[in-house]
Specification:
The protein has four helices and ten strands. With 247 residues, the chain is α+β, with helices and mostly antiparallel strands. The strands form three sheets. Strands 5, 6, 7, 8, 9 and 10 form a six-stranded antiparallel β-sheet that branches. Strands 1-2 form a two-stranded antiparallel ribbon. Strands 3-4 form a two-stranded antiparallel sheet. The longest helix has 35 residues.
């Protein structure tokens, strides 16, 4: 048989026509396709992970605290939404927005975390802890609404050792004004101006009261040494004082 008509030997064929080469090429193609698919899927998964791991936008600016969002501007005029109610013979302020929200027969609590709330708390707690109202008022007020301290304990001990009968209503001072000596959302120092009963020229004295924000409410800080005289001063100068009181 002539050579040209005999079946061609595999050794004489071009490499790309041999069965082994074709099978290898097909396998390589499959591997490449699978690799491309895996890479595509990995990229999509990584993209989703990145999107999922992106931290949410924080509405509070970096470096700020919740306290920074609280109002700190002190009023320069008398709060408008205040009415005056009697506690014994003493008028005390009640505000629809600043408190108190929890009132018993002898105590008042639940004040707004605002400058106005601190002012109402100073007036309510200050007057209810007055020696002149009698032990039924000052004892539960000091026990529950004064921040625990050695000075608070001294104040209680001194008042318990004294005559605790209510004073003559005509001899008691009434609120006449206020001034903010300092204010932060944690601590307020308020000068509560009281007008002493007098038939002649008005006489005033100022109680420098410290309010602390504790456990969700304003609490009074007891005077140094447990003595009210340490935070009380007589004055005739009302410069910077906002007139405020019952009408």
């Amino acid at each position: 048989m002539p050579r040209s008509s005999a079946p061609q030997d595999f050794a004489d064929r071009p490499p790309w026509t041999r069965p082994g080469f074709i099978a290898s090429a097909a396998l390589l193609l499959v591997i490449v396709i699978v690799g491309v698919l895996i890479a595509a899927l990995s990229l999509g998964h990584d993209s989703n992970d990145t999107a999922d791991s992106t931290p949410p936008v924080n509405p509070t600016p970096a470096g700020s605290s919740p306290d920074q969002a609280l109002p700190t501007t002190v009023p320069t005029t008398a709060p408008p939404d205040v009415r005056w109610e009697l506690v014994g013979p003493l008028p005390v302020p009640v505000s629809t927005t600043a408190g108190p929200t929890r009132v018993t027969a002898t105590t008042a609590a639940g004040f707004a975390h605002t400058p106005e709330g601190a002012l109402i708390a100073a007036a309510q707690i200050g007057m209810r802890s007055s020696y002149s109202l009698g032990r039924d008022y000052w004892e539960p007020t000091i026990q529950r609404q004064f921040a625990p301290s050695a000075d608070r304990d001294r104040l209680l001990a001194q008042m318990r050792a004294s005559d605790s009968s209510p004073a003559d209503p005509g001899s008691q001072s009434h609120i006449a004004g206020f001034s903010y000596q300092s204010y932060t959302p944690d601590t307020a120092v308020i000068g509560l101006v009281l007008r002493a009963p007098s038939a002649g020229t008005p006489r005033y004295h100022v109680l420098s009261l410290v309010l602390l924000w504790r456990d969700g409410d304003w609490q009074m800080q007891a005077p140094p040494g447990g003595a009210w005289t340490s935070v009380n001063r007589n004055t005739s100068d009302l410069t910077g004082v906002v007139e405020w009181g019952p009408r």
